[in-house]
Amino acid sequence: MAERGCFTQHGYGVRFEWGPQGARQLAPETACLVVVDVLSFTTSVTVAVERGIRIVPCRWGDERAAALAAEFAARLAVGRREVTAEAPWSLSPAALRRAPFVPRLVLPSPNGATVAVAAAESGAVVAAASLRNAHAVGEWLAAKRYGTSERPVGVVAAGERRADGSLRPAAEDLLGAGAVIAALAATADRTLSPEAALAAAAYTGTADIAQAVNCCASGRELTEDGFAEDVAVATEPVPEPDSASGAVPVLTEGAFTAAD
To answer: Coiled-coil ranges per the record (predicted)?
Structure first.
């Protein structure tokens, strides 16, 4: 059954939703879906793509992960706590920055990668955004004329999972999504759904983004688990709109690679 227009935010050029179901909900009416998972999938994707590594998204726990790695002639990333000298690639952006270069890497994730796979199944163009490359993504969307009534864009915050498996809206992903929406709105005249406008307001109304991410539930969890460096990478200073903007990862033939 098709979603009612009110739930697809029909009529707006820029829309905002949460999680895999949100991606599926927006997909039929959007030309591009932007996935945001600040801690840590899309931050890891930006770090990798900046190094020239192609990232193949994979649902967490997918039994086909090894087969996917073989299909793409790629390495398979391991869990943060499973990193070894022989397998130094993981969901940790700090670890990916230090790890040896590989041309392709399959990166499983319970949130961001799952949203990316759901978005890809819709046939829409899929991009990955984080706080690190929000301006770049906003500029790219504007240049491609996404966010217009003819080419709507959906920005999807991945969120986290509660112990029972339900979606936990995450502050860092709200801020990351808001950063992309604010950057696009500042670059080009776009009509924002109320949901998208509220996400942008959350970003522009937060005085200290790094402190907010460090002190929110997800940031505290990673820090308490010994991965404070990942939070630091995710909250590195965002480039100004008129400066070198960084990579825009776009899902191309099954892997995130830098857009032209």
So the answer is: none
